[in-house]
Specification:
about 425 residues, alpha/beta, six-stranded mixed β-sheet, 18 helices, about 40% helix
Length: about 425
């Protein structure tokens, strides 16, 4: 038992890069541990520079930068929470917070955040980190899903080019992808290795919601007509029109880029931040552009799960941690972080920055979509990760490949899904 206890302790320390204790030096100086998930070179540099600026101007509160990874953050945080070794300031995504918030691992920031920060970020963004009556994270970076298109291909085809003011409808998008296909090429390549968030978030444009909270506070899944529009479009593009590549359904976004550059696909639906990879990897002279995702009955509405900053409930320095978050997310700093990650800031002041309204790399197109971004449907649903992994992901993958029909898709999402959620709502 002692050997296993020591091994667990060592593992926790290695995972968090932290040390135990109340992090107060003999001279009274506080040390905060900030675990960042920044991974792109520009983003890591921006985060480290801002930490250095804080440390230079706050001699009594030192921030240590700890590098985390998106690939393992949920399990790593759970280990550090249960071991009492969580970092003070936690970088994560809003759709990963519900179980941590309800489990008592994250501090309620309602009374810790300054008025400036609360008013600068719109309420629609705060909804992504609000669970019950508390706020358990600060949403600061977000990205819409857009269509990255071969500009020359679309121009030569003569199709109408959509804009945020005049987007395609989902029906028009389907017709155009069929028009662009033929001779071994496809109008669109859907990278749906992780199909759930893409499907649910885009379905907000058609009025889809999927998760419905009853008067008793419990959530049930209902897969209605509005929820079907987006998955039916993808299914029909792949299996009926042959306008979407069947081979990319199990691929990640980056996997589609070689075929896109090679002229196999006219468009690829991707997160806005993929523009950086395209700038770095596209062949010389390759002409591409950003188009808004199709619109439905609710216009360009789209679900997002912003990147967030939270404070551990066990942190003995919550006030200082909140002050560092406020510093990190000043408008000018939020712009630096957004540019480093090629994403959009949530703050209204940061969104006004001229650097985010340029035609270069279609920053202006993405910024025009910011007002349409909403809380992802599953943000506050306990048990969502299990439902997603065990029920929804295989069900959507099989539907998109043509292995099952719409009735079986609905049955699995609702019946199997509600059984999963019920275990978390007793």
């Amino acid at each position: 038992m002692r050997i296993r206890w020591i091994a667990a302790l060592v593992t926790g320390l290695l995972l968090t890069g932290c040390t135990s204790g109340d992090d107060v030096a003999d001279d009274g100086r506080v040390t905060l541990r900030f675990q960042s998930l920044a991974w792109q070179e520009e983003s890591v540099a921006a985060n480290k520079e801002l930490v250095a600026q804080w440390n230079a101007s706050h001699p009594d509160v030192k921030v240590e930068y700890v590098q985390g990874s998106w690939d393992s953050v949920h399990d790593q945080l759970l280990t550090s929470f249960e071991g009492g070794e969580a970092p003070d300031i936690i970088h994560d995504a809003s759709d990963d917070l519900a179980d941590f918030a309800y489990g008592g691992y994250l501090a309620d920031l309602t009374d810790l955040l300054p008025r400036r920060l609360k008013s600068d970020i719109p309420q629609r963004s705060w909804r992504t980190t609000t669970f019950g009556d508390g706020i358990y994270g600060v949403p600061f970076l977000q990205e819409p899903r857009v269509l990255i298109a071969n500009a020359k291909w679309l121009k030569d085809s003569g199709v109408r080019i959509p804009t945020p003011e005049r987007p395609w409808s989902w029906a028009e998008f389907r017709r155009i992808t069929e028009q662009l296909s033929g001779d071994g090429t496809y109008g669109v390549a859907w990278p749906l290795k992780e199909p759930v968030s893409a499907t649910l978030n885009l379905s907000l444009s058609t009025g889809g919601q999927l998760f419905h909270r009853n008067q008793d506070g419990k959530v049930t899944i209902r897969f209605g007509a509005a929820d079907q529009v987006v998955p039916d479009t993808i299914h029909d593009q792949v299996n009926t029109d042959r306008s979407a590549s069947p081979t990319t359904l199990g691929s990640g976004g980056s996997d589609t880029l070689p075929g896109f550059f090679g002229g196999k696909y006219a468009m690829v639906p991707l997160g806005f931040s993929y523009r950086q990879q395209i700038v770095q990897q596209a062949p010389k002279g390759f002409d591409w552009q950003v188009l808004p995702a199709p619109a439905g009955a609710d216009g360009l509405a789209q679900g997002v799960s912003p990147q967030t900053l939270s404070v551990a409930e066990d942190s003995p320095h919550k006030k200082e941690a909140a002050e560092f978050i406020d510093f990190l997310l000043r408008p000018e700093n939020m712009v630096r972080l957004a540019l480093g990650d090629w994403m959009l800031p949530t703050g209204t002041q940061a969104l006004k920055d001229p650097a985010l309204h340029t035609a270069e790399h279609d920053w202006a197109t993405g910024t025009a979509l910011a007002a349409h971004l909403r809380s992802a449907p599953a943000q506050s649903v306990r048990g969502y990760p299990e439902w997603k992994d065990k029920v929804a992901t295989p069900a959507f993958q099989e539907y998109y490949s043509g292995a099952i029909g719409p009735d079986e898709l609905r049955e699995r999402l609702e019946e199997d899904g509600n059984l999963v959620l019920a275990r978390y709502q007793r």
